[in-house]
């Protein structure tokens, strides 16, 4: 599925994909999640060049491996995630989500790290390598580093449920488990009950916290949040979420996850923290967006604000852990998933926008 230009629809197009280089892997895509970033690419809000192929939550089967690849093998089931260089300080420290080459490898190049294209339509170059995969397709060319084998414990889990682990699930769950790490008997508030926020809810529900409050504008999402472990919910269309959280917690939340990407909601999330509290900011609005944060409130109340990319995940260890939680029923990702044939991509996008599908997952092997 290609996007010709900003604002254009997704369109089916037959392209030529390069064979794998020594450090690359060819994956037959069985399922691919749709994420806010994919719609932002289509809208021209993210710095990915067009025409191009989006898609960055793929899962499938390895069909070819480059001569230097050792961690995945022909026939392996794999989950695809973000790309990283493996050489910089952050990658060497086990934090590839802070890779010094994160933006070019996942957004701005639209090509391999060396600038060479991997997708063509006759003589025309089509931009690919979105998050090192461009998996809105029947096949994806990936790097060894962003191709993660499915652990044996999850061998029976459908690819449609595994695929969202690669971005949305690990982002929300990692914000809680890897960054905030709430102490026992603490309070967590989650702003935004999309797939990232609900993943944070599922992760927080695994911990011995005292309260788990979820804020959103859709009652259906708030009902789902309760099902996933929220102890209280707030519809911010009818109640002030800051006042509600202060009332529920006796002064403010110890930890918040802001997943909506709306600047005004970010301000509410930070304001709702108690003194010494921590905010994990994972929602991403269009590049260049600012928010009017009360600096005196942050300083005088010793509040901590963390920008979090991909849940501060180290995918080779974190994704198998999430897959194991999923396989044992402790991370019910299947409750978020609605599947579509690849040709139904526009329907999936519409249902994602209007809130009737929390996590659309496209199935390239099915016809619309």
Walk me through the structure.
28% of the residues lie in helices and 23% in strands. It has 368 residues and is an alpha/beta fold. It folds into two domains: 180 residues, Quinone Oxidoreductase, Chain A, domain 1, CATH 3.90.180.10; 139 residues, NAD(P)-binding Rossmann-like Domain (Rossmann fold). The strands form four sheets. Strands 4, 5, 6, 9, 10, 17 and 18 form a seven-stranded mixed sheet that branches. A six-stranded parallel sheet has the order 13-12-11-14-15-16, sandwiched between helices. Helix 5 packs across helix 6.
How is the topology of this model organized?
Elements: E1 2-3, E2 10-11, E3 16-17, E4 24-33, H1 36-43, E5 58-65, E6 77-80, H2 89-92, H3 102-108, E7 119-121, E8 124-126, E9 139-143, E10 147-149, H4 159-162, H5 168-180, E11 187-191, H6 195-204, E12 211-216, H7 219-228, E13 232-235, H8 241-249, E14 253-258, H9 263-271, E15 273-281, H10 295-300, E16 304-307, H11 315-327, E17 337-341, H12 345-353, E18 359-363
Parallel strand pairs: 11-12, 11-14, 12-13, 14-15, 15-16, 17-18
Antiparallel strand pairs: 1-2, 3-7, 4-5, 4-9, 4-18, 5-6, 6-10, 7-8
Summarize the structure.
This protein has 368 residues and is α/β, with parallel strands linked by helices.
Mean pLDDT: 96
> Which CATH class of the largest domain applies here?
Alpha Beta
Low-confidence stretches: none
Q: Give the overall form.
A: globular
Distance from first to last alpha carbon: 13 Å
Order of helices and strands: EEEEHEEHHEEEEHHEHEHEHEHEHEHEHE
Provide the CATH architecture of the largest domain: Alpha-Beta Complex
Q: What do we call the CATH homologous superfamily of the largest domain?
A: Medium-chain alcohol dehydrogenases, catalytic domain
Number of distinct helices: 12
Cα Rg: 20 Å
Structural class: alpha/beta
Number of strands: 18
CATH fold field value of the largest domain = Quinone Oxidoreductase, Chain A, domain 1
**How many domains is the backbone divided into?**
2
- Main beta sheet: 7 strands, mixed
Q: What is the helix content?
A: 25-40%
């Amino acid at each position: 599925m290609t996007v010709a230009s900003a604002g254009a629809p997704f369109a089916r197009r037959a392209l030529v994909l390069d064979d794998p280089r020594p450090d690359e892997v060819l994956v037959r895509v069985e399922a691919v999640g749709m994420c806010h970033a994919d719609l932002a690419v289509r809208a021209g809000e993210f710095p990915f060049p067009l025409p191009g192929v989006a898609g960055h939550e793929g899962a499938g089967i390895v069909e070819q491996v480059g001569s230097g690849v050792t961690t995945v093998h022909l026939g392996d089931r794999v989950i695809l995630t973000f790309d990283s260089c493996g050489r910089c300080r952050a990658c060497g420290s086990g934090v590839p989500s802070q890779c010094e080459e994160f933006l070019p490898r996942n957004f701005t190049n639209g090509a391999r790290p060396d600038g060479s294209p991997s997708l063509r339509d006759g003589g025309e170059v089509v931009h690919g390598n979105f998050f090192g995969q461009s998996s809105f397709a029947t096949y994806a060319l990936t790097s060894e580093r962003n191709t993660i084998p499915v652990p044996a414990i999850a061998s029976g889990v459908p690819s449609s449920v595994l695929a969202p682990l690669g971005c949305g699930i690990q982002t929300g769950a990692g914000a809680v488990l890897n960054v905030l790490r709430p102490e026992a008997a603490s309070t967590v508030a989650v702003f935004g009950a999309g797939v990232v926020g609900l993943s944070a809810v599922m992760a927080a529900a695994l911990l011995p916290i005292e309260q788990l409050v979820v804020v959103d504008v859709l009652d259906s999402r708030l009902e789902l949040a309760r099902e996933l472990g929220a102890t209280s919910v707030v519809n911010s269309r009818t109640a002030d979420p800051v006042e509600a959280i202060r009332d529920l917690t006796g002064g403010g939340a110890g930890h918040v996850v802001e997943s909506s990407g709306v600047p005004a909601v970010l301000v509410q999330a930070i304001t709702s923290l108690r003194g010494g509290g921590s905010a994990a900011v994972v929602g991403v609005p269009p590049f260049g967006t600012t928010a009017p944060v009360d600096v005196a409130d942050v300083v005088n109340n010793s509040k901590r604000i963390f920008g979090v990319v991909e849940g501060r995940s180290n995918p080779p260890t974190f994704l198998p852990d999430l897959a194991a939680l999923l396989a044992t029923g402790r991370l019910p990702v299947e409750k978020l998933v609605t599947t579509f044939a690849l040709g139904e991509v526009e329907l999936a996008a519409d249902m994602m926008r209007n809130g009737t599908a929390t996590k659309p997952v496209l199935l390239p092997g099915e016809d619309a």
